[in-house]
Design goal:
By secondary structure, the chain is of the alpha/beta class. 38% of the residues lie in helices and 14% in strands. The strands form 4 sheets. The chain has a 7-stranded mixed β-sheet with strand order 2-10-9-6-5-3-4, with helices on both faces. Strands 11-12-14 form a 3-stranded antiparallel β-sheet. The structure holds pyridoxal-5'-phosphate.
């Protein structure tokens, strides 16, 4: 049995052809595939606008910039996420306020967030970054109501959930990144994600002003709208109006992303099937204390189990070439955040979860034999 990773990209001949075509063309970057990828992705998630960027972290950074995060401002997020969801606040000099998870859903607990907002009498908290952790989509309608009560903006970190949705109070399916409730949403096209572009990211929104601002910030702060230039020296003239970055995606990455996007629904179906199989089998094992389960609208980026002897199981599976992972070491106990005052014990539910969690292999091309091998090794470990 070959090494089984927890996540893996799927590259077809069509993907290869799409990339090679761009490499042979005139445009390696800023070519026609960027706009096409943006338009197709916006349609896929049901948003009005999309901005392609170099990775998910750049997407988060541009969002905090566009929303005006600055020193003295605070932003709430979950510790159970990749550190980038918090770091984007620090890039702008803002302060991260971690808030604990709901132990059942693994998502940011909205009641905890409410308590922190209520305690913030000087209204220093300006925004909330909920994360659709593992692919389970946050009830963004509830967060919108809460955010409006306290004058906050919302960035939906949807890196784990393209194609996922939650059901709102009117019984409608609301897609992750649709912009119906969150001000901005971000995605990543890192190879372990649903759509691989090597590196890559996307911001989606329904807010035209934010969209235009993000387009400028992605390219050094150079004004993209000719009518907004303050001077006109001639056809060559470009005008940098604020400090931005080069966070552009290349055209060949966009071609790969676009080609992958055509199979996104197929990939999501496969993920659902595998999650359902895990769900059925694992429910019978009493050594599994809890697992992420099957939930309507879940995009199944990760399938997580909780066990008592997590380290032993991790080492055993790794020794058997099953490359399970831990998602995540809670962000607040990273030395960087400890140096800023956070400590063990601050987020008891996240820390309890971290002590037991383990991510099993889940990707669309996971073979039946590989799945069976994972299950057999799980059983074997707990029998011995
Ligand atoms: C929840 C979450 N947010 C943000 C990121 C950052 O994305 P990228 O790796 O594309 O910079 C990731 C990627 O691992 C992620 O999982």
């Amino acid at each position: 049995m070959n090494r089984i990773p927890y996540g893996k990209q799927h590259i077809t001949q069509e993907d290869l052809d799409a990339v090679v075509e761009v490499l042979k063309s005139e445009w390696l970057t800023q070519g026609p595939n960027i706009k096409q990828f943006e338009d197709t992705f916006a349609e896929y998630v049901g948003a009005k606008y999309a901005v392609a960027v170099s990775n998910g972290t750049a997407a988060l950074h541009l969002c905090t910039m566009a929303l005006g995060v600055e020193p003295g401002q605070k932003v709430i997020t979950t510790p159970i996420t990749f550190v980038a969801s918090a770091n984007c606040v620090r890039y702008c000099g803002g302060e991260v306020v971690f808030s604990d998870i709901d132990r059942d859903t693994y998502l940011l607990d909205i009641e905890g967030v409410r308590a922190q907002l209520e305690a913030d009498v000087n209204r220093e908290i300006k925004g909330i970054i909920p994360v659709n952790f593992a692919g389970r989509v946050v009830d963004m309608e509830a967060y919108r109501q809460l955010a409006d009560e306290f004058g906050c903006w919302i960035i939906e970190d949807a890196c784990h959930s393209p194609g996922g949705y939650f059901i709102n109070s009117q019984g409608q399916k609301v897609l992750a990144g649709s912009g119906k409730y969150a001000d901005l949403a971000i995605f990543s096209f890192h190879p372990v994600k649903h759509i691989a572009a090597g590196e890559g990211g996307m911001i989606t929104t329904n807010d035209e002003e934010l969209y235009k601002h993000l387009m400028n910030l992605r390219t050094h702060g150079i004004q993209q709208d000719a009518s907004k230039k303050r001077e006109d020296h001639g056809a060559w003239y470009y005008e940098m109006q604020e400090l931005g970055y080069n966070y552009r995606l290349t055209d060949f990455q966009a071609a790969l992303g676009l080609s992958q996007l055509k199979r996104a629904d197929w990939g999501l179906e496969k993920r659902k099937e595998i999650a359902a199989k895990y769900d059925q089998i694992l429910s019978e094992f009493d050594f599994i204390k809890k697992h992420s389960g099957v939930v309507e609208g879940h995009a199944y980026h990760l399938y997580i189990i909780e066990v008592d002897d997590r380290k032993g199981l991790f080492d055993y599976l790794r020794a058997n070439e099953i490359f399970v992972q831990i998602h995540y070491v809670p962000a607040h106990i990273m030395p960087y955040y400890r140096d800023l005052g956070w400590k063990k014990g601050d987020m008891p539910k996240s820390e309890d979860y971290y002590s037991m969690c383990l991510t099993l292999p889940l990707f669309p091309t996971l073979m039946d034999e590989e799945f069976e091998f994972v299950i057999s090794k799980l059983k074997e470990y707990f029998k011995s």
